[in-house]
Design goal:
Blueprint: E1 2-12, E2 15-24, E3 27-32, E4 43-46, E5 51-54, E6 56-61, H1 74-83, E7 86-91, H2 102-115, E8 119-122, H3 138-144, H4 159-172, E9 176-178, E10 191-192, H5 195-200, E11 204-205, H6 208-224, E12 228-230, H7 236-247, E13 252-256, H8 258-262, H9 284-296, E14 301-302, H10 311-314, H11 317-320, H12 331-340, H13 347-354, H14 356-361, E15 378-382, E16 387-388, E17 407-408, E18 411-417, E19 420-424, E20 430-431
Parallel strand pairs: 1-4, 1-5, 6-7, 7-8, 9-12, 10-11, 12-13, 13-14
Antiparallel strand pairs: 1-2, 2-3, 4-20, 5-15, 15-18, 16-17, 18-19
Length: about 425
């Protein structure tokens, strides 16, 4: 099948150029102007006035299957990803059961492949049940196709356990992707320890619960040489540690979630658990430091930490509601609207943080880039027309987000995986 994407502003090789893209049999065949006549192709997509990017990559999502299908399934989560412009996602291991044996991991990978509408890569846990000190069989996990190792949702509390895991991961060429949380400093917190916690009389989570475990892990990564990746960094103190570790030659990378870039704890004005996530929204100076770190290269990529929960669960307030918000469908729109349009980040840098960077750092060879011969994983965004975020519109089974009822730019018009349209917005301009 031949597809022609016409007249879009195309991001390729780090720059934006208005041109056409010719796709054949799932691969990009050519880039340029006036490539073929319309009657020579099976489908034409008019991208005039739109941004055309490689399919976005999200290395941090939570699809709740198996075990919590009322929140999200592989099918609904991957539909949400496509609606947000993501063509490759990497899903965490905090399911029930946890895929902590080769057999469980293999079954979940097969389910991802059968039910997913985008390309899904699967994490294996670092330890059994996510909370024990018993490291999983890392060579066997690599053999079954694990993308990387993470206990996301739980910090590895034992330095000896983390060291053992790092040694094995290094030998197998797998990254350790760490959720940083020293439970002895967590204080049963539900919000950042700060003025908002005091005002609302809620137990606060100390920022040092993140940075102290990071300091430990940097020394372990230095000793082992493993690729050590920091999930959802949230504090200025952590950024300083990462910045210095990079200067020292430690093989360390990090991600930031959109919500930590867009909000701080001063934005929490009432007991609304759509602002409850872990790590929590920090103070305004932390937020500003995170945005600056996008520009100076300290932060390597953006990942959503898409964490769906039911409306019933999230209606219980900060003390009783679970941590987490959805992000797949609003990530690009919110970052474009609130950072790029406000001059805090260039459009090219935003795209790189959501495409080139994760692809290169995690060697995601099946993820497309816009160049001849590459997989036609492509997303098309409308930057000019505002879109009202509505809970009823989500493709996800959940809609727990503080962005509901806001107006954002950058709606996904089309999402293609291997040249096939997996999402098309209503009113999309395509014809055969």
């Amino acid at each position: 099948m031949k597809v022609l994407i016409q007249a879009g502003k195309v991001y390729s090789q780090g720059s934006l150029t208005t041109m056409d893209i010719l796709i054949e049999e799932g691969k990009i065949q050519a880039l340029g102007q006036h490539l073929v006549d319309q009657d020579e192709v099976d489908q034409v997509i008019d991208a005039s006035g739109c941004l055309v990017t490689p399919g976005l990559i999200d290395i941090h999502v939570h699809y709740r299957e198996p075990g919590f299908e009322d929140k999200e399934t592989i099918a609904s989560g991957s539909r949400a990803a496509a609606r947000g412009g993501f063509t490759s996602v990497c899903t965490m291991a905090n399911t029930n059961p946890v895929p902590d044996t080769p057999e469980k991991l293999s079954q979940l990978i097969q389910k991802n492949q059968s039910d997913g509408e985008v390309k899904i890569h699967q994490y294996a846990p670092i330890t059994k049940d996510l909370t024990s000190d018993q490291v999983v069989d890392i060579p066997a996990m690599k053999e079954e196709g694990a993308f990387a190792l993470s206990n996301d949702g739980h910090g590895v509390q034992s330095a000896a356990t983390m060291y053992q895991a790092m040694l094995a991961a290094k030998e197998q060429g797998l990254a350790i992707c760490a959720h940083l949380e020293d439970r002895s400093l967590f204080n049963n917190g539900v919000i950042n320890a700060g003025k908002a916690a005091e005002r609302m009389e809620l137990p606060g989570i100390l920022s040092v619960a993140e940075s102290s475990q990071l300091a430990r892990d940097i020394e372990l990564a230095r000793a082992t040489g493993v690729h050590y990746h920091v999930c959802h960094v949230s504090t200025a103190a952590s950024l300083n540690l990462i910045r210095q570790a990079k200067l020292d030659g430690v093989n360390i990378t990090c991600e930031v979630a959109p919500h930590h870039l867009l909000f701080h704890d001063g934005n929490i004005l009432k007991d609304d658990a759509n602002y409850k996530m872990n790590p929590p929204l920090r103070n305004s100076s932390d937020q500003e430091a995170l945005v600056q770190a996008l520009n100076d290269g300290t932060i390597d990529l953006i990942a959503t930490d898409h964490a769906p929960h039911t409306e019933e669960e999230k209606s219980q307030g900060f003390l009783k509601s679970p941590f987490g918000i959805v992000g797949s469908e609003t990530a690009f729109m919110s970052l474009y609207t609130l950072l790029v349009k406000r001059g805090k980040l260039s459009l090219e840098r935003l795209i790189a943080l959501m495409t080139d960077q994760p692809r290169q750092l995690f060697h995601l060879e099946t993820a497309g880039t816009i160049w001849p011969g590459q997989a036609a994983d492509i997303s098309i965004f409308n930057l000019d027309r505002p879109y009202q975020v509505k809970a009823s519109d989500y493709a996800s089974k959940s809609s727990n987000s503080p962005l509901n009822n806001t107006s954002l730019y950058g709606r996904t018009e089309y999402c293609l995986v291997d040249g096939e349209i997996v999402y098309q917005a209503e009113g999309g301009n395509s014809h055969e």
